[in-house]
Amino acid sequence: MADLRALFSSNDPSAFDVAEAFTDRQHQWALVAAALEEHLRRTGAPGFDVEDLEAPRTNLIMFHGVGGAGKSTLLRKIEAALSATDHRPDQWGAPTWTQRLLPIHIDLARSASTGSDFERVILTIRLALAGALGRTLPSFDVALRSYWEQVHPGELLDEYVRRTGLTGRFANLLPQQLQAGVGEVAAALQLPGLVGSAAGQLTSALVTALRERQERAQALAGAARTAALLEATPDLEALSYYPHLLAWDLSRLPAKKALTPVILLDTFEDTGDRHRDFERLLQRLVWLMPNVFFVIGGRSRLPWADPALHGQLDWTGPAAWPGLATLSPQSLPHPRAATPGSRQHLIGDLSPEDCEDHLARRLVQDGQPLINAGIRAAITTRSHGLPLHLDLAVSRFLEIRRTGRTPAPADFDCSFPALLARTLSDLTPEERHLLRSVSLLDAFDLDLATRTAGLTHQAPARRLAARPLVSENPRALWPYHLHRAIRSAVRDDEHSDDRWTSADWHQAATRALAALGDQWTNATALAPSRTLLVACLRQGLRLARDHRLAGLGWLIDAAFVYTDDSVWEPLAPSTAAAEAPDTPADALAELLTAIARRQHEHRHRTADRLTAVLDTGLLPAELTEMALYYRAKAHKDLGHNDAARTGMRQVADADGRLAPRARRGLANLARLAGDFPTALAAVPTLGWKGRHHRVLGDIHWSQADTAAAVAAFEAGRAEAEQRGAAGERAMTQVRLALAVSFADPVRADDELALAGQLLDGLDQRSNRLLAQVVALIKDAGTSNVTDRAQSLNADIEAAGLPFLHRFVELALAFHHAVCGEDQDLTATIGRLRELTATGDFAYFTDIAHFMAALPQPEPAATRWTKNEDDVRSAWRGLIQARQEHLRTGN
Length: 890
What we know:
single chain, 5 domains, globular, mainly alpha
């Protein structure tokens, strides 16, 4: 209908044009009308065959969206519009078809995935046809009677209809028509004595007649599969195929009786279960009745076009359901051409583009949008696509305009009391309390909601979760979440009589933080979950920061577990540049963000951020050590090794949780300085927490002891797998590939591929870049290595990881030595000498000389764990082995 509120907002009704409200669903009706017209044309064409079970199906349209978006209302409006012209909104327009239609509305919300539910669906359809046709449907009726007597022995059909609530004007017609259908079949077979006999006898006689191709039986029930269906055991499985007989009977109706059923299946999400048993039966109904049009409403898209469901449903894939495989844009307030052939349409929340489109068209003056672009953007952002919010924002725009003031975008950075009032109106006091409690959470389950609200039983949370304002994703970690616009309205509430005080919000936030911690702690004791850890940290950090909660509690332990495996999922927005952390929670959030973001920021930026956090003095002692340790790692990556050693020594001397890692850092720094004996001596003290196998492997490959390095890295990878440490497993695998790449390029291909698989989904930028170095070494002696090295150096520079430049030059030295390119090798050694002038990685320069059997210009400072001549010989041997490999191809 027209927006009367807007029409009456001005003394001048011609001041602006008022567009129709999108809640009239004119666009959705246009989609239904177009799809139905296409269906009627197809079924009315001379070549249409109701028995064709191989043709793709387009006899349906699906509307999906979040709960409470108006899907059921839409289906009922469609039902009314198809039932009578005077029930159709004027703006929907008159349909172009002239065929007789029969809308049949079936609410699947009452279903529970059982055979009796499918019986009710079938009986509902047959009851509707009983009243509309006033005649028998012989093939189907004989099969239904046979099924009924087998499955419900001694129970009269009319009594069942009354007992199950399938009553209506035509409830008594179905038993009569079934009996009449039996008589019609008996008469056609010239067997009047079978009218009152058991269904099995009549069915057997009809099957015999069909098998013998008796003309009258063929004319009455001559579908090709009728005999086979009647011979099958009359059970639920057979019943699910009887719609084929019903479709045949409908196709044989006289012209004066002909009609097209339009079956509206509402609340389709209630048919789903893990095994899709009930959904399979309903899909058969749709497939076996190609001359019937279906309108389906549910929360999720129909997945029937997904080939992954093969075996769970009878017909799957885009070839079977081409319309379900074609996405359409979200439904809009004004008609817009949908994707051709699409049969899936989202309703409810609008996309930002659609919100903008609606607001631009809603109020128009002189052909231009009355609401300017800035205000439209502000309303769209705040609405989160909720149609009601857009309506209220338009009303606010008109109210401000009536005062004589020009509305501004800042006027719409708000929620609306009216939205909250409508939300709260039918909630119990307990549910209102729960609603406010869960508004603190991004997502929740029943236990988390109950504990956040401080309740002792879950029933209120279960009731609230069933409300349309709560959406459910059963596959999510926490399946429930409030609509974001409603959540904002609840949090901003300053008008409700029972609104919370600041103390109420603080107490609820404290309960929520404790509940999250308990969930994570209890789950970790049984089976550690990285997904749960990150989710709890994200919500917990936000709660602690936003509500300035005292004490970090479980967040400290969670922070250490988070950093332990080097995966680096994003956790929380960092503190704004203009706002220094002023609570421990702020400092912790900035600490973890700086550590995680170092995969995407220059290490200088990481070191600066960590220094700023340390300077606040807000971190407790344990977290101060974490900041010191990761700042030391940043210094190491930048080549500031004196600063790195100082930081690592501070952490190691504190003997806290990160002491083993700090001791590993000191061992690595000793190796980088060329002091291999000191690094090796530290390995027995490191253990798993100090990643002893990885440290040992780095020592061995640096001395060309490939076998020992591979053994160490394989042991480290196995240990990481046993402990479920995905980040360490990937890190160790990259180093294993590095060790192998010098000695065995064929195996290195496989190891590098595995490294890529293990890195997939992990945020480890330095290891991804190191894997590219490994690829250069693996391909040494072939073409294009130099060009790839230059490109890789550019990426390394952008990442702020200068230590990796030395690895690239080492790879080039190996390549040039293999190729015998003395001049290029000399230039590479020169660059290596410059890169290692501080003393760190200076042994790379020694290795480059060893590879080419070149004398060193001056005595080296490197201390190897074995005789230097043996190291020299081992590296030269790798060059010779690669040259032989390239010559022979083996």
